[in-house]
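Researcher: Next entry in the queue.
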Amino acid sequence: MNSISDKLIKILSLGIGLAIGIVLIAKVCFEDDYWGTSGGIAPGFKAEVPGVEAATRYSNLLNGNLYDENDNLITGLCIGADTCFFDFFNREFLAGDPMQALQEYNGDIAVSRSFAEKLGGVNEAIGKQIYSEVWGPKTRLTVVGVFEDFPENGSVQGHCCLR
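Model: Structure for this entry, 163 residues:
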């Protein structure tokens, strides 16, 4: 009788262990599919990990149709970034102030050279407004800076950066 109860306990324990293992594997699989990064990761690494001198984060916000003040279609990829973005990636600013562009979310935006040329030129783009179908025509972003394009073979492909 004792050996039957031992076998039942072993089978039950094995079944529970397998079930918990499957749940943990599923949890890890679902976590890996999440595309975003928590807002505290970059500043936390910079503050707490020795040797990390600079950190930034960015997220793709929109890849598609943008419009200028005259409702002309301009396609582009907009990314949301923090204030350290241009320090970290060291893109040359051709016009405007990089810190103003990402200081706070207030409708200011920095655009790449190629995007600015679609708005009339590097210097002419400053002060112009753009909007997206996704955000609606009432949500207009004002160009306050123009940065040099990112290399085509790089991991960052943004045409517009905002906070």
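Model: The CA atoms of residues 97 and 136 lie 26 Å apart.
Researcher: Noted, moving on.
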